[in-house]
Design goal:
Length: 169
């Protein structure tokens, strides 16, 4: 393991432990803990993702953060997606939105479909370091969650990551 990745893992473990979640926590309890830690409401929004869209994304709105997660997937994969997206929030990868009155560069385009904008923009605002941090912290958060006896076993991992009519992600 490289020293940079080792430092990242140690730092992310500290962040995860700082949430002080009890064992057997649910994804919703994790979401509540992150919300309290960041002092911002967070809502999980399951939805059917479009082809080519990631299985999850996080959207920072002025009043709340929304974690979008593929609804047509297993519970374990859903938990992994949510943990990854919450990690982006904990790592500060998303800018705090300015209010419309404070953002002179804001352009209103009422004819554009917000869903299409999300699809086109995707995760292009993240760099590799941000994705690495989110993956490491997301894995640490998953370790904290004990969703069901044996939920993390290798025998259940492949089926848990299979969705969208049998396509692996």
């Amino acid at each position: 393991m490289g020293s940079g990745l080792g430092r990242t893992r140690r730092r992310m473990r500290t962040v995860a432990r700082g949430l002080r979640l009890p064992p057997l926590s649910t994804v919703e309890e994790l979401c509540d803990a992150v919300s309290a830690h960041l002092d911002r409401p967070i809502r999980i929004a399951p939805r059917r993702m479009r082809v080519g869209e990631p299985s999850g994304s996080v959207e920072r709105l002025p009043a709340e953060d929304v974690v979008h997660v593929e609804q047509e997937t297993s519970g374990l994969h859903r938990a992994h997606i949510v943990c990854h997206e919450l990690a982006h929030l904990l790592c500060g990868h998303l800018p705090v939105p300015a209010g419309p009155e404070r953002d002179p560069g804001r352009v209103e385009l009422p004819t554009l479909d917000p869903e299409m904008v999300r699809l086109v923009l995707g995760r292009s605002h993240y760099d590799d370091a941000a994705e690495e941090e989110a993956e490491v912290l997301g894995a640490e958060l998953m370790r904290i969650l004990v969703l069901a006896p044996g939920a993390g076993t290798t025998s259940q991992l492949a089926p848990a990551l299979e969705h969208r009519k049998g396509q692996h992600v």
